[in-house]
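A common beginner's mistake is to predict each chain separately and then try to dock the pieces by hand. The better habit, illustrated here, is to supply every component at once so that their relative placement is modeled jointly.
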Amino acid sequence: MANTNTGEIMLKMTDIHKAYDDLEVLKGIDIEVRRGEVLAIIGPSGSGKSTLLRCINKLETIDKGSIAIKDKFLVQTKDSEAVYASGKAEREILSSTGMVFQQFNLFPHMTVLENLLEAPMQVKGLKRSEVEPYARELLAKVGLSDRADYYPSQLSGGQQQRVAIARALCMKPDIMLFDEPTSALDPELTGEVLKTMRELAAEHMTMVVVTHEMAFAREAASQVIFMADGNIVEQGEPEAFFAAPKEERTKAFLQNML
Amino acid sequence: MEKLFDIFLLMLDGTQITLEIFFVTLLLSLPLGMMAALGRLSSLKIISRIVEFYIWIMRGTPLMLQLLFVYFALPMIGIRLPDIAAALLAFTLNYAAYFAEIFRAGIQAVPKGQYEAAKTLGMSYPQTMRRIILPQVIRIVLPPVSNETINLVKDTSLVYILAMNDLLRVARTIVQREFDMTPFLFAAIFYLAMTFVLTWGFKKLEAHYGKY
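With all components supplied together, the output reads:
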């Protein structure tokens, strides 16, 4: 999967800086993701990779830099101050992203189907009859048609995470963000979630995936970034990146992961 | 036998006062408690502090003292309330403070991830509270709210100091007049019947909200 993609730029992050009090967690990160690309971000814990991901949909705010999604600025820096888009503009920009969390974060008081219907009906104001066919289609796609009326607590972790993916997709986002989607799962359950993600990648969904799954990064990603201490240490296409890493830190990290 | 029936009728009158105070207090203090809980959690320090002070006063002084204050002290500064209104004011302010703390703990018990999930799906703060957070809070707070509600049934008997003829005061009056202890037994049975209905009701509610 060579990075010959010249499609539209879906996400552009420039010179991202973020600090918690005195602790600098992001020290000037640049990222560009084009339509249909899968960007895998790997790195040791505390490297800032999850924080970076969470900046994309404003779960975390940045101190300096700019983030543009489909050419619209979510935030840009003017006079060394990060200025966010406001109100309706911000909601519109953010609505093109969907997120999948490490802890699934399904709504426990709603059935699987209700979890999928909730946002399209509440946020987009659609009627149930307008969303339900698509929601059921998504459930079929993640292999959970027969669980539509179950509550999340009645499902395994892997099933819950697949519901969470379907829930995010139900809002028809242009970019899917994954924050260590398999880290909270028992090893035997990671496969089913990764399979769903691979299928999404094969359908050319634009994805940014923070992960510890090197096999997934190697096979499904079109671009890999290795982060450490708030910096991008190394970046490249997966084949070259995994076969012949250039930086010592990358080598050491990859060796540890095997 | 006829005498017992008369006593029973008198005590039904008293029960009416008791139930009136109970229901009106509950109806007013639950929403007020919810607002206080949200105020307590407000990011505006000043609001949070004011609510915290109010809760401290209400939980830190006896309900009996609060009743006396509203009934006897407020008229001195020109605020004279009818008996029942004075009782309701004190009860509502007191119970709202307790409910506020229960609701606050309930809201804080909902994981942060629920807010984040709702936010990434584009839901606004009011939508998130109404559709995602509060339904989960209700499940968490039902047992402690049930507890407080049963307390309220019995606390209503404090209005006897305001010379209101609630269930217990009626019972006591008859006991003192007739030198007959049966009214106390009746009163106990009446209170037990009320708490029985409440316990049953809350059990149903818990089953309804606990189905997931």
